Amino acid sequence: MKRKALIIDDERLARNELRKLLQEFPEIEFIGEAMNAEEALRMIDELNPEVIFLDIQMPGKTGFELLQELDKVPTVIFTTAHDEYALKAFEFNALDYLMKPIDPQRLGDAIQKLFLTEDRELITSEENFNARITLGEDDQVFVKDGEKCWFVKLSEIRLFESVGNYARVFFGTNKPLILKSLNSLEERLDQRIFFRANRKHIVNLRMIEKVEPFFNGGLLLEIKGGEKIEVSRRQAVKFKEMMSL
Q1: Which pLDDT band holds residue 144 (cuts at 50, 70, 90)?
Q2: Exposed/middle/buried for residue 175 (C-beta within 10 Å: 0-12, 13-18, 19+)
Q3: Exposure letters 4-28 (e unless 16+ CB within 10 A, then b)
Q4: What is the pLDDT of residues 22-44, one digit of tens each?
Q5: Which of 1, 14, 70, 186 has the most CB atoms around its CB within 10 Å?
Q6: What is the largest CA-CA distance in the chain?
């Protein structure tokens, strides 16, 4: 079944580009475009779209202010040139958050998510790790540690480390803690990409730079960030089976 879509963006070129990209997705029925919040309010009331591609910074009311005025909010996919609004976008239960210029693959991922998910939760480290859908490397998560927060692709996370009831997340130069056990994370992650090396570590297979034999039949993995992770003897057997031709 097709989903009726409305584009809301004050930039004509951005609207044209997104409309052109959407032509590659026959499951999306483009029903119109609005250049500001006032126009969008009227069109949403008249056309009843099922999904809106919404810019955030617009003259007059912002995309957030538009959503606050709606009694019934369609599925929201934010399209913006500013990544600093990602945390606030989560508060509005957005389906996805696409950065301009929009990558066709990311758009395709968002549209696939539109048809796969029913609860329309924005992917977060605390909520979507409990969701029914397995997270893939192109999915994005919020990671929050105290006052700091990040919006990061799973493909950029090289390592999860158990720290009591918490898990430390390694990406770039950051190593924040989230309130999740390694077991619960393992259940949600794609095991073709994320491998349980031992009791304390899950590693991103794409981030392994070097593999060496180790004590008692185990292996030693060197990760892109410089971390060295031991693979237990039992998991070493599984690792070799996975990575062999």
Answers
A1: confident
A2: middle
A3: bbbbbbbbeebbebbeebbeebeeb
A4: 999 999 999 999 999 999 999 99
A5: 14
A6: 69
CA distances from 93 to 30, 138, 167, 216, 237 (A): 22, 19, 25, 49, 42
Contact 89, 98 (CB under 8 A): no
Taking each helix axis as running N to C, give the angle between helix 12-22 and helix 104-116, from 0 to 180 degrees, rounded to the nearest 10. 60
Other C-beta atoms closer than 10 Å to the C-beta of 80 total 21
Task: Report the C-alpha gap between 210 and 207 in whole angstroms.
Answer: 9
Q: Which residue has the tokens 């019934």?
A: 72
Long-range contacts of 115-118 (CB under 8 A, 24+ apart): 115/3, 115/27
Q: What pTM, to 2 d.p., does this model score?
A: 0.52
Instruction: Give, in order, the Cα–Cα distances in Å from 230 to each of 115, 183, 199, 207, 220.
Output: 40, 18, 10, 15, 5
Q: Letter for the amino acid at 17?
A: E
- Least Cα distance to 51 among 25, 80, 28, 23 occurs for 28
The bridge status of strand 3-8 relative to strand 51-54 is: parallel
**Cβ-based neighbours of 184, under 8 Å, separated by 6 or more:** 129, 130
Query: Under a CB-based contact definition with an 8 Å cutoff, are residues 87 and 149 in contact?
Result: yes
Q: Quick check: 167 and 141 in contact, CB under 8 A? A: no
